[in-house]
Specification:
Length: 381
Amino acid sequence: MTSHIAAATPTIDAVAAGTPGSFVLSRPHGSVTATGVRAQFDDAAAAADALRSGDVDAVVGALPFSRQTPSALTAPLNLTVSPLPWQPPLVLTDLPEFVVGDLCEDDHIDRVRTAVNVLRTASTPLQKVVLARRLALRTDAVVDPRSVLAALVAGNPSGNGYLVDLGAAGGSFVGRSLVGSSPEVLIRRQGRIVTCHPLAGSAPRHRNETTDREIGRSLAESPKDRREHAFVVDAIRTALSPFCSALDIPRGPTVTHTPQLWHLGTPIRGELHEKSTTALDLALALHPTPAVCGTPTDLAYSTIDELEGDRGFYAGAIGWCDANGDGEWMVAIRCAEISRHGREVTAYAGGGIVAESDPDAELRETITKFGTVLSALGVSL
């Protein structure tokens, strides 16, 4: 397998739509592309073992939300890691017009209301659960995943975006792609240094600058959102502590933003005990965090399974890891899955539910979060 630091700005011309093993991760500090298939893994633990043993020298792809469902991980033939900005190819297929399916808003409100009632029960150990909804879009034309990725990256000031072929998961996932623009780093490893930036607690941006700043300040002071955020930070501390000789975690969150949302975020930095611990090992130890599942994890997961059903790769993780153990994994949010035949796109959006949550406000939050993908597709609700 070829692995190198590119000498020129990479494009995804080689990452053809529907090509098995295709992978792109675009980040502010650089980009990673992968093509070709040396091996495929639907078991993440097996992929981690193969990487550790030297049987493969890189792994890229996606982890599902549920540990009980197949992963979509590939050992690529070619991996390009570049410190240069990612740029799309000059020629791409125009995105078609889409028809939006049933919004199912009442269904989501009912799910949130059910969860809130449970959370307000004195006897329940459940403290937070993340509930999501999906939105189906259809078109008569074939959607090129590369065109969606290009639109997502162009619409994000930090250049965040990803494209993952899901075929390694087998079955109905063969031919499907996941595209998105996630603001949330699950874990990044460079040598012995690990970093992550969990986000939990959010509020919509406003066009009026003064109002927008006030929304950000209110979020920073919100007891409900700060409590929700603390669940995530505490869980990450617990998960990373066994691997790290030192952890630097600020006492409280700071406010960050995307074009659509304000978020509470906490930058976390650690130093590994053992250099043999890979980025994939750390991603598996951290996922799923309370930011996409809830707390306690097992109870939150069973609640999601009961109220929402299988999420597939939404709220999983996408990323890469090389032979040195370095790599980066993002939380798979602000995303959409493109069907095998390219005529159906399913977008996902969710939010953390705690006892103080208002179902109508939670619905509005999902509409705002859908905006990342829908804006890229040229769709408005």
